[in-house]
TrEMBL record:
Residues 5-139 form the Glycosyltransferase 2-like domain. One of its GO terms (molecular function) is transferase activity. Pfam families: Glycos_transf_2. It comes from Paenibacillus nanensis. This is Glycosyltransferase family 2 protein. It comes from the Bacteria. InterPro entries: Glyco_trans_2-like, Nucleotide-diphossugar_trans, TPR-like_helical_dom_sf. Keywords: Transferase.
Amino acid sequence: MISISLCLIVKNEQSTLGRCLDSVREAVDEIVIADTGSTDGTKEIAANYTDRIYDYRWSDDFAAARNFCFDQAQTDYILWLDADDVLLDEDREKLLRLKKEIKDTVDAVSMIYHYAFDEFGNVTLSLRRNRLVKRARGFRWHGPVHEYLAVSGSILSSDIVVTHRRTHVQSARNLTIFENRMRRGELFSPRDLYYYANELLDHGMDEKAADKYEQFLATGQGWSEDVISACLKLADIYSRMRQPEKQIAMLWKTFDYGEPRAECCCRLGHFFMERDRPEEASFWYRLATRLEKPKDCWGFLQDAYWTWVPHLQLCVCYCRIGDFGKAYYHNEMAGRYRPDDPHVLHNRRYLEGVLRNEAL
């Protein structure tokens, strides 16, 4: 059986750290924590779980901090989490089984990341990340912000889920790092441009974000998942800026990078619904319901578009067309995912009345 070091970098995580460590402590053999300057009770909480706590002088470089933390690990494999991540009971049991069954030839293990949820607990944003790596391979983190772990060799795709339980409010920390780098005249990679644009978008700076997304696309060197994401985000920005030609051009552009995605199909449906063209809108929403969700996608998937959103929108489309039977069907399909959604409940009451009247 392999041994595992859990590595975390933390700062002012007293509200979440104990929950994170409680969820995983039974599955790991040591816990290594690099504290980057906490002023609350984070280190005191950490001391209840480990004596491997290191002070790390923060330098606006997440990769450097994570690499320092990795360098302190002493076991066969390294597992990394953030303080607001947890392993649910079934996923902790899966990790314990993996410890016993994993072959020594495996260099890294990827896990599913459930990043965001709706008010009913449904996953709304997910992706896959390399989470467990063989220490002897010396894999390193890269990038001062929105860092990534570069791995190679034999990679096992597991069904273990890491669940994000975010409690922090929006921070300007990452945006500040990017802007400081820009002022210093640092050369931005295509990946830097993409994540800088994301930060600008998150802070409501649509025009600046659009400029950086366009710069990113112009490099022609971005990862396909980031390119698709940038096109979708640009489409949303151009919609808000009332530039429909650019909006739909970005949606069509996603098709240059693979098969249609539900995220794009639903946006196309919305584009045509806004122009009172429900027949065309229904085509794209129907296509979204028929697509198979990628199982091993490394980019962000907006799960709502692969589940209830197209069905709820098809209900609206068919109501406008006058096909209330199909409208009812798709409303009920949406209800399978969100049974207590007020829109689903309202539609059901309305459509049941319409269908009763039609039957008279």
